[in-house]
Design a protein that fits this description.
GO terms for molecular function: oxidoreductase activity, acting on paired donors, with oxidation of a pair of donors resulting in the reduction of molecular oxygen to two molecules of water. With 369 residues, the chain is mostly helical. The chain is built from 16 helices and 2 strands. 60% of the residues lie in helices and 2% in strands. It has a two-stranded parallel ribbon.
Length: 369
């Protein structure tokens, strides 16, 4: 692994991996009723907010009630998407044997079918994190997010595409499973997408019917206001999810890798790739809950199947391990990380003027120069 080997000696990599394995095991051994109670309380809160939001929209003719309804519904959708759906579907609570918390049974309030998402996210993204041409979350097949991605005039629209993706993020996540970029390249046929599309249509129809037909009709003459309220809540959830996810994956200091660099990697090398390819977002307890604790993206990439509520508890130890081995631990406030992502989107919209590196490792050296 040419780029990663420069970081640590083989002996250090082995010890580094052992320390993280030990941290993981201690955390797993400590899981118990407190974790179960926590997720049940979050689910209870989410459901209460959704009921309150839906009810307040029945009084939508009164502006404060409409605003309160939209606010409650927005919070409910964010919690369902981030702290509940994303984390439950990662298998973080499979150890409880509770059917309601089963990663294979859970379905979230989102147009992206859970089964499709589990494959593209849990398997592909978390196995091949930040490996170019393997991790399809790098740019989502739409954006240029790394200098090693070959420039094309299409990428001049990078900032505009990102803005549209933020607004329609749940739809972007859904369509991501089509692998449309591979279809364009001739690597995949439309006929290969039949089952994926069937699931998309079924799930999207149900979501659209619920938010934009059923609930508006239930409010009678207030249907247009309810329609607008649901659309606003979905927009808030989309913008928030996009911001948290992009800030955890694409700030300027986050690195990408080639397939050659990561060939035959050990467990310690896999951990090392997660550290170098992730960034955290600082904030208070409520901020972390509303982000699904993906504000601790480093810890999540290291231990994706450990309950996310544990990430703040182990973050200090992870950071100390990184400092011990001279590794970066990328973190910063939301505004800083967002600004870094925005600058990157603009910069990579343009063709590079300096010689292109032959490997991603070389590109790191170029960026550090």
């Amino acid at each position: 692994m040419t780029g990663l080997q420069d970081r640590l000696t083989p002996e250090q990599v082995e010890e580094f991996g052992r320390e993280l394995d030990e941290l993981r095991q201690r955390t797993v051994d400590d899981l118990g009723q407190e974790d179960v109670d926590y997720i049940h309380n979050v689910i209870k809160t989410q459901r209460g907010l959704e009921v309150a939001g839906r009810a307040l929209l029945f009084a939508g003719f009164f502006p404060p009630a409409w605003l309160a309804g939209v606010g409650a519904l927005s919070l409910a959708k964010v919690l369902d998407n981030m702290e509940i759906g994303h984390n439950v579907m990662h298998g973080q609570y499979d150890w409880t044997r509770d059917p309601a918390l089963s990663s294979q049974r859970f379905e979230w309030d989102n147009v992206a079918p859970a089964e499709n998402w589990r494959h593209s996210h849990n398997y592909i993204h978390h196995t091949y994190t930040n490996i170019l041409d393997k991790d399809r979350d790098i740019g989502y097949g739409v954006l240029r997010m790394d200098p090693a991605q070959k420039w094309h005039p299409y990428y001049l629209g990078n900032p505009a595409y990102a803005a549209l993706l933020a607004v329609f993020f749940q739809w972007g996540v859904m369509l991501h499973d089509l692998e449309f970029d591979r279809i364009v390249k001739g690597e995949r046929k439309w006929s290969d997408t039949t089952e994926v599309v069937r699931k998309m249509v079924k799930k999207a129809s149900r979501q659209v019917g619920k938010d934009y037909v059923l609930f508006p009709l239930l409010t009678g003459p207030l249907a247009p206001l309810t329609f607008a309220g649901n659309a606003t809540a979905n927009l808030v959830r989309n913008l928030w999810s996009f911001s948290i996810i992009f800030c955890g994956h694409f700030p300027a200091e986050v690195e990408s890798f080639t397939e050659e660099e990561t060939e035959n990697e050990s467990r310690g090398q896999w951990y090392l790739r997660q550290i170098l390819g992730s960034a955290n977002i600082t904030g208070g307890p409520l901020f972390h809950i509303m982000s699904g604790n993906l504000s601790h993206q480093i810890e999540h990439h290291l231990f994706p199947d450990i309950p996310a509520r544990r990430y703040p508890q182990i973050a200090g130890e992870v950071r100390a391990i990184c400092e011990k081995y001279g590794l970066p631990y990328h973190t910063g406030p939301l505004h800083k990380q967002l600004w870094s992502v925005a600058k990157k989107l603009v910069k990579l919209a343009l063709p590079r003027t300096s010689p292109a590196p032959t490997t991603v490792g070389a590109d790191r050296q170029l960026r550090a120069a």
